[in-house]
Amino acid sequence: IVHLYGQCAYTDRIGQLCRKYGLKLVEDNAQAHGCLYRGRRTGSLGAAAGHSFYPGKNLGALGDAGGVTTDDDELAATVRALANYGSTQKYVFRYTGRNSRLDEIEAAILDAKLYHLDADNTHRRTIANYYLSHINNPKIVLPNVPDSDAHVFHIFPIRCADRDELQRYLTENGVQTIIHYPIPPHKQECYRAWNDRSYPITERIHREELSLPISPVMERTEAEVVVRLLNNF
C-alpha cells in the first residue's frame, strides 16, 4: 500500500517489487486527488486505489463518501458487491459485505466538483508557492517540495519546536490551524502493544507539525496575513 499525501510517492522500484513477488499495488489516494506522476493521475498507478471524498478533501462531497478506482473488471465487480451487502444478485450473498453505497446526492455533488478539480488544485499551488517563497523564520521548517507542479497541497504542513506556542499565537491573531496529527500511531491506545516503543523521528514530527490554512477559495491577502504573522513569531 502506498500512501499519497498530495505529492506522488509512487516509485518504479515499488512497482518492480510488486511484479517480482506477485503483489498488488494498492494506492491510498485519499489526499492526492488530481495529482500527476509522469503524466499519469494518481489513483491509476496500481491495481486499485482508495479515495476519500470527505468534505475537506481536494475533491469532497457534501458528507462522508469514498470510492475505489481500478481498471480490473473482476476487482471492480468484487468491490461493488462488498459495498452492496456482499451481493451481486438480490438476496444472494457471495461475500460478507456491508452497506457502503454512495448515495445519489453525494455522487451528483462530486460529479459537478470534479470538473473544477484541476483549477482548484492550481489555486492551492499558488497559495503554497507563496508560503514557500515568503515564509522566512529560522524557527519554522517548511516542507521539502522538489516539484510543486506534482503536488496538490491537500494540507500545507510546517514544523516548529514551539508548535503549541505558535498555534496559540496564530489563534489569538485570527488564524485557524490544525495539527496533523497530535499522537503518533504507535502511541495510540488501539496499538497499546506498541506503546512502549520509541521512534524518535516520528515522535518529533508529531510534536512539531502544524498545518496552515490552504484552500481553493483562500485569497492572496489572507495568505499575506499568515506569512506576516509567521515571520514575526
Describe the structure.
By secondary structure, this protein is of the alpha+beta class. It has helices at 12-21, 73-82, 104-114, 117-134, 163-172, 200-208, 220-232, and strands spanning 2-3, 26-28, 36-37, 40-41, 48-52, 66-69, 87-89, 92-93, 140-141, 156-160, 209-212. It starts with a strand and ends with a helix.
Features:
single chain; 233 residues; alpha+beta; 4-stranded mixed sheet; 3-stranded antiparallel sheet; 7 helices; 15% strand
Task: Give the structure's gist in a few sentences.
The chain has about 230 residues and is an alpha+beta fold. The chain has helices spanning about 10-20, 75-80, 105-115, 115-135, 165-170, 200-210, 220-230, and strands at about 1-5, 25-30, 35, 40, 50, 65-70, 85-90, 90-95, 140, 155-160, 210.
Return the string of H and E elements. EHEEEEEHEEHHEEHHEH
Helical content class: 25-40%
Global shape:
globular
Low-confidence stretches: 4-10
Mean pLDDT: 92
Radius of gyration: 20 Å
Span between termini: 39 Å
- Main sheet summary: 4 strands, mixed
Oligomer: single chain
Widest sheet, order of strands:
1-2-5-6
What percentage of the residues does DSSP assign to strands (E)?
5-15%
Count of separate DSSP helical elements: 7
Number of strands: 11
| Structural class by sheet pairing and helices | alpha+beta
